[in-house]
Amino acid sequence: MSYLKELAALKYTNHLMLPLVGVHWFNVQQWLIESWVYWDMKHVVIETTNKIPQLRIGKYYFIGGRHFYKLPVPERLVPDVKRFIDGKYSQFSDHARRLVKDLSGLQYEIEHPVTKQKHTHVLIIAIDNSEEMTPWRTPMREALSMEIYGDAYQLSEDTELLSPPAVREQVIYEGELP
């Protein structure tokens, strides 16, 4: 599968913002309908199929037959929410990167049982600009460059490997929750 197709299938908010509010992907995935950054940039809003008893953070709302949670972003991670909105994924703080690696449910250096090769999800590669990720970032940059330009060397080293959210409405929850 191409990097572009793999990324197109993802809802970035689910995997990059939920970890920042302390929500593990595996704990909510079966109930999760949608997630957004709240307009104040200090909360993440999720819509679920029903109330989740084990989700004890934030505020729960039942509005018009729909289930919502408004989850606070810790103050020290609010700048990472802005980076997310601006598409500056590789500039996430070290703390935000660790949370995403630990809570997003995305593969991070998972060894294949037969080939023994390690696999790291493209979203993790895109947010982690550390030296240890260079073996993953370089081929990803070259593959993306080939898919976009037909030339493996068109994207510079400082190019973000993900685009910012294309449609603000897909990422920002503009509604009002008390």
What's this model, at a glance?
The protein has 178 residues and is α+β, with helices and mostly antiparallel strands.
Report on this model:
- 29% of the residues are buried.
- The chain has 178 residues and is an alpha+beta fold.
- The strands form two sheets. The chain has a five-stranded mixed sheet. A two-stranded antiparallel sheet has the order 5-6.
- The longest helix is centred in the C-terminal third of the chain and has 16 residues, at 134-149.
- Helices cover 34% and strands 17% of the residues.
- It has helices at 3-8, 12-17, 25-28, 78-86, 94-103, 122-127, 134-149, 168-171; strands at residues 32-38, 43-48, 59-63, 66-72, 110-111, 118-119, 172-173.
- It is built from eight helices and seven strands, in the order αααββββααββαααβ.
- A hairpin with a 2-residue loop joins strand 3 and strand 4 (66-72).
- The chain has one domain (3-164).
